[in-house]
TrEMBL record:
Name the UniProt record assigns to this protein: DUF6286 domain-containing protein
Keyword annotations: Membrane, Transmembrane, Transmembrane helix
Transmembrane intervals: 59-79
Coiled-coil regions listed in the entry: none
Highest taxon above the source species: Bacteria
InterPro entries: DUF6286 (IPR046253)
Species this protein is from: Amycolatopsis methanolica 239
Statement: the UniProt record of this protein carries the keyword Cell membrane: no
Region (Disordered): 157-176
Domain DUF6286: 68-173
Compositional bias ranges of the Basic residues kind: 162-176
Cleaved signal peptide residues: none
Amino acid sequence: MIRRSRRSLPASLVALAGVVACALVATSAVQLLLGERPALDYDAVAARLHATRWEALPVAIGGGVLAALGLLVLLAAVLPGRALVLPLSGGSSAPVKAGASRRSITGSLRSAAESADGVESAKVRLRRRSVTAKVRGSRLAADDVASQVRQAVEDQLDRIGPARRPRVKVHVRRTP
């Protein structure tokens, strides 16, 4: 039960490019029907395209740019997005499918890290295989603070019970 993010930005960009192209063509068509000078002169565009050779540098650059953009959009559509809901272990009883949002897990781990003695603030980053906690503390023994934060985060991970347990890394920075 891993819910992944939608790829709304690439889809929106492709849709916006299509709408702009359609609006330009429709505007030109209406202007031609009304007998006015069109915004997009078809004769000038056709003459320019007929004059351009396939070996020309602008054609090669334009083709390369369009191919790269097409590849990026294709990869954005095919590759899976970042998981928004992470699966939790069902426990030893019935196979219950449950999940928790990445945001709520990160917030819970940050609260656990900040609850350790000597920690003033904490930033937690949750990745696929690791949890990194960057804490700021005023105590002199950074190793002691790091071990307390690690223990607090691991205890919170035990309570949450993710299906795949990440490693815990702690970085302590002393505040002056």
